[in-house]
Design a protein that fits this description.
33% helix; mainly alpha; 2 strands; 121 residues; single chain
Length: 121
C-alpha cells in the first residue's frame, strides 16, 4: 500500500474496518466452537448414577501383597526354544519364592548398577 492509498483509506474509514472484521470472525469461530461442543456433549451418554458406580467387594478393600517371587525355570530343550513355544505366550511366569527375606544389597553400595551414591551410612 502506498501513501496515497493509506490517506484515502484513512479518510474513508476502510482502514479500521479490517481489524473489526477480523475480530468478528474470531468471535464467530469461538461461538461456533462452543455450539459444536454442546452438540457433541448432548450425543454422549450421561454420567453414571450412584447405583451404577463400582462398589467394594464383599470382603472389603483388596490390599497389596508383598512377597518375593522368582522366575520359572527356562524349559530345557535340545533345540532352540522360540518365544511362542514358551508357556504364557513368551512371557515367563513367576512363582512365590520359598525364602521369605527380601534380598538386600551389600553394605556401602547404592543398590543400582553404577549408581555410586554416598556409601552405606
Amino acid at each position: 500500500m502506498n501513501t496515497a492509498t493509506m490517506q484515502i483509506a484513512a479518510q474513508s474509514g476502510w482502514l479500521s474496518l479490517g481489524p473489526l472484521l477480523a475480530g468478528v470472525a474470531v468471535v464467530a469461530i469461538l461461538l461456533g466452537g462452543f455450539w459444536w461442543g454442546a452438540i457433541v456433549r448432548r450425543r454422549e451418554s450421561p454420567p453414571p448414577r450412584p447405583e451404577e458406580q463400582p462398589h467394594l467387594p464383599p470382603g472389603g478393600a483388596v490390599r497389596e501383597v508383598r512377597e518375593n517371587r522368582e522366575p520359572d525355570e527356562m524349559p530345557q530343550s535340545p533345540t532352540r526354544v522360540l518365544p511362542h513355544e514358551l508357556h504364557a505366550f513368551g512371557n515367563l511366569g513367576t512363582r512365590p519364592s520359598p525364602t521369605k527375606p527380601r534380598p538386600r544389597w551389600s553394605k556401602g553400595t547404592s543398590g543400582s548398577f553404577g549408581g555410586g551414591g554416598l556409601g552405606g551410612h
